[in-house]
Amino acid sequence: MSNNTTGKEPDKKLFGKTLEELTEVVSELNLPKFAAKQMADWLYKKGVTSVDEMTNISKRNRELVAEKFEVGLQSYAKVQTSTDGTKKYLFPTREGKYIETAMIPDKTRITVCVSSQVGCKMNCLFCMTGKQGFGGQLSAGEIVNQVMMIDEHDQVTNIVYMGMGEPFDNLDEVLKSIEILTSEWGYGMSPHRITVSTIGIIPALKRFLNESNCNLAISLHTPFDGEREKLMSIQKTYPIKEVISELRAFDFGRQRKLSFEYIVFGGLNDTPSHVKEIARLLNGIKCRLNLIRFHAVPGVDLPATNENRLQVFKDQLNQKGILTTTRASRGQDIYAACGLLSTKESGRATGNCPD
Predict the structure, then answer these.
(1) pLDDT tens digits for range 213-241
(2) 124 in active site
(3) Rounded CA separation 71/67 (Å)
(4) Residue 100 annotated among the catalytic residues of the structure
(5) Global confidence as pTM
(6) Does residue 262 register a pLDDT over 90?
């Protein structure tokens, strides 16, 4: 089965190829070497949808390209808009499944949350995407496509890899997508406006830290080994203390940011003992701890915290010297929690729509 999820084989699509790969295309077709840069310019700066629009390439050469390749952009199938302005886009994949992309507007920013896989292998207890199972890897083109094919594509200021899937389980394509987004020949975004989230796959973590300059977010959710293993099975293979050890050994510099994501479950991971252990675990690390409210997921028996308890937990962490903020809940009226809307839509396609 191809890794591609939206039609033709990935190597037939120009969109999603790096400059090096476009140079290989040009060489294969015996075109002038400079045509690769021209193609990159048309694909990533001018946003063409067909080879024929690349008008500074001769008609004959465009015909040669079009015989073997297409641009390969994929339109979204559906969009829902929240009362707070958040949008969730659904892009179709194979076998009636969907991937989700969220557009989150703020006062001065438009953040896009992209998916990196169809479903997910990691099966974290609290995550709806994991309950879908794993449906395939997204190509670099399919990842970047989520940014460029939403209605707000020309207003995007920030990108977070926090949608469906575990980015470090598809690291080659994630890194390639980042290259396209940040390179001078691509979209030219600052890597410091891109954040990649992971549950902590250590070999991929090392590669990411050394091969990109993007921000990093680590899913923590509890500082205690036994509790974390119940929430996230990855803890058995890559314990959080070993992840933290790798982070301590790396120089993040002044601009690159490190954060920890922490979904708060009432009475489960928001006690004074958790405050004390988080402070011990993160002591001396320049980072931010983002608290996230838990919103119910079908079939998951985990408690939500209340606002008073959440505030006390936040205040206690800040008093311990851990810079702690609470992430605003967005788009709750449109199944904004990752995996909910795509599960519902896929259920419709198969006749097993969840309520």
Answers:
(1) 999 999 999 999 999 999 999 999 999 99
(2) no
(3) 12
(4) yes
(5) 0.91
(6) yes
